[in-house]
Amino acid sequence: MVTLADVARHAGVSASTVSYVLSGKRSISAPTRERIQHSIDTLGYRPHAGARALASSRTDILALMMPLRTGLYVPVMMEIAMAVTTTARSHGYDVLLLTGEEGPEAVRRVEGSAIADAMIVMDVGIGDPRLPCLREAERPAVLIGLPAASAEDAETDGLDCVDLDFEAAGARCVEHLAGLGHTRVAVLGEPPAVYERDTGFAARTLTGLRAAAAAHGVGLLHRPVDGTYAAVAAAVTRVFEERPGTTGLVVQNEAAVEPLLALLRHQGRAVPEDVSVVAICPDQVAVHASVPLTAVSVPAQEMGRLAVERLVRRLSGEGPRGTELIPPRLTARASTGPASPGAPAPLPVDRPVSGPEDRRGHGGQ
Q1: How does pLDDT run across 109-124, given as a tens digit for each residue?
Q2: Tell me, what DSSP letter sits at residue 223?
Q3: pTM to 2 decimal places
């Protein structure tokens, strides 16, 4: 490993002179600075991170808080993390990944130890308990997600957020099915634990689904579901028992996609002739499903990239805080088609159901 002393010998100066050039604490003549920089480049010297941090109060590290909680679809989380890492490196930053469920304590640790210059926070809930610490922290933070019921609420709270416009995404799914003549639609949502935590993206999607259903006269039923075949089978069986005329399904649960398609085949329900299916998921999930899915894309890479770029601008003193929502993009594929002739009339949009999946007001309609 090349050391500071090696650079000094190569440049023909003292080690302290090299240190002054690196830290900027003393004025060094231009020819000497250039000679030292040439030696640094030639030898491939990289300053020790701890020493660099002491000299500049910067670590060139971004902390990514990605708690791996129950119910989350890890491949999407990792895709965001990869985008954060590659974008950060393009700006000269490394990434420290924090996956524990520590909540505010993780924020305090990053802030108190100065191990990172800034923070990116994922899996954001409405009224997230990490918010008070983030507001008080000296280091800037960008949230991937909204800790509020709407973008307007997040804006008034002075937060810096990046996310897909999940409310518009939910509405777009219903609008697509309504345009094909579907009047009874069921939603297979995220696992119950996601709603119990008041995770922002799931709650906002449900708001958009319900609003669009009311606007288009579509009867809507919502069922949180785990991604196993048994859980999907139980939920779908219950849906068709309660609403036999259901011809449209919206899936916001990547793990449930293939169990659902397999179940429909087993039940003899053709997609899309008998049942149309729309998903909110990454493109690779939609394209590689056993029936290519009409879907609103979850732009994981774009969210990660935008979060880092906003944070880099904040660190340079250029970027104001605010909320940036990515407009939803729906791509029609083989899983949706016109409702079958003689489809039933819609049921009332607001029809409360009871059950454990309806806690916190995120149950069916």
Answers
A1: 888 887 899 999 999 9
A2: E
A3: 0.78
